[in-house]
Amino acid sequence: MSDITPVKLRPHHLLCLQGFSGKGYSDKFIDNMSSIKETLNSPSSMINLTFSSDDICAKCPHLIMGNLCETQDTVNIKDDKVVKYFN
């Protein structure tokens, strides 16, 4: 059994991570995103895809009620598009 804790990510965040350049909504968000990106650069990292708030959302100032985005409908559309595109 592995001791590796998977990084929980929404599908569209896979693309956000590719373009991340150290900028974002707040210092907490930037630090969190940087840490997640560094973790995923490890060859032993794992990802658990989810269609709810994830490890990136955890420090986003747009997260409301602990598990929803202020623009939840838009976020859902982005996730659906990424899943359909990559099958």
Oligomer: single chain
Strand content: 5-15%
Helix-strand category: alpha+beta
User: Gyration radius, to the nearest Å?
Assistant: 13 Å
Supply the number of helical segments: 3
Q: What count of domains describes the coordinates?
A: 1
End-to-end Cα distance: 29 Å
Biggest sheet architecture = 2 strands, parallel
The total of beta strands comes to 4
Arithmetic mean pLDDT: 92
Could you describe the 3D structure shown?
The protein is of the alpha+beta class and 87 residues long. Helix content is 44%, strand content 11%. The protein is built from three helices and four strands, in the order βααβββα. The strands form two sheets. Strands 1-2 form a two-stranded parallel sheet. A hairpin with a 3-residue loop joins strand 3 and strand 4. Helix 1 crosses helix 3. The longest helix has 15 residues. The chain starts with 6 loop residues before the first strand and ends with a helix.
